[in-house]
Design brief:
alpha+beta, five-stranded antiparallel beta sheet, two-stranded antiparallel ribbon, 3 domains, Cytochrome Bc1 Complex, Chain D, domain 2
Length: 286
């Protein structure tokens, strides 16, 4: 081994030392466990722009939940509550979910570490410390599968009907205000669906009214449709498929099959209990 080769490890070590000194020993933003911009109103404003550009398509404007992403204004988050955990979720994505990593081709146009921290600062600025739900989850479960009959059409933790969207994680993906509106006026968002940029659910749950050539009538929700065929799930949860040309009539309406639960039908206390049940289910309760 030549004398020059023997000196290489020492030269390499000195080079690393020089680099460390030149950066003053500072840690990159990603390595920090705490948000370096926490509580900074200016950074929160920059973060709002980052959020709108990269996150709002899934999480909605104001971070209140959108087509695929959960409501981020809740203090309790399904995949971690600390700033460091949120950073990791954004930077690396969340395996097994629709959350991609914050790289070019992933979230929006891609985000730098600094921009991720700014977005987190914005999320903290709009975060609510309380969910706004004050009910009894045990009684809410009884109502859901009992007199309120929600379980006839909706599944929670594997139990319930299939006619409406599954609600197991609804309380983490939607705000309390959104859920109340969905119960009190279920047709409102469905009626607006064609105008909304983001769909509330992957399936629109449009109501279908079908009459066959022999006069038999069916009502249900549209599962799949193209120019020539349609599939619906009727109110008895029976799947039907037809060629449109074989039907006497086929009509879609954006009037939800779900009845409107006004305060006479479902008093406010009962509604809060139902929401509490959904919140407990979303957090892993039964």
């Amino acid at each position: 081994m030549t004398e020059r080769m023997k000196r290489l490890p020492a030269i390499f070590a000195l080079t690393l030392f020089a680099i460390a000194v030149s950066f003053g020993g500072a840690k990159p933003l990603r390595a920090q466990a705490k948000n370096p911009y926490a509580g900074d109103a200016k950074m929160a404003k920059l973060g709002e722009s980052q959020f709108r550009s990269n996150c709002a398509f899934c999480h909605g404007l104001g971070a209140r939940g959108g087509g695929r992403g959960p409501d981020l204004t809740r203090a309790q988050k399904r995949h971690g509550n600390s700033d460091g955990e949120i950073f990791r979720n954004v930077h690396d994505g969340i395996a097994g979910t629709a959350m991609p990593p914050a790289t070019a081709g992933g979230i929006g146009v891609g985000m730098t570490d600094e921009e991720i921290w700014q977005a987190i600062t914005y999320i903290r600025s709009v975060e609510k410390k309380a969910s706004g739900i004050n009910g009894n989850p045990a009684r809410g479960k009884e109502l859901f599968y009992g007199t309120a009959a929600c379980g006839t059409c909706h599944i929670v933790n594997g139990k319930g009907g299939r006619l409406g969207p599954e609600l197991t994680t609804a309380a983490t993906s939607r705000s309390a205000e959104y859920l109340v509106e969905s119960v009190r006026t279920p047709s409102k968002r469905l009626a607006q669906g064609l105008l909304e940029v983001m769909k509330d659910f992957p399936q629109q749950y449009e109501t279908a009214n079908v009459t066959t050539t022999d006069g038999v009538k069916y009502q249900g929700v549209v599962l799949n449709e193209d120019a020539f065929t349609v599939q619906i799930l009727d109110t008895r949860e029976v799947l039907h498929a037809w060629e449109k040309s074989s039907l006497k009539s086929y009509e879609k309406t954006r009037e939800s099959l779900m009845p409107a639960y006004d305060e006479k039908t479902l008093p406010e206390k009962d509604l809060q209990d139902l929401l509490a049940f959904l919140a407990a289910s979303a957090e892993g309760g039964k």
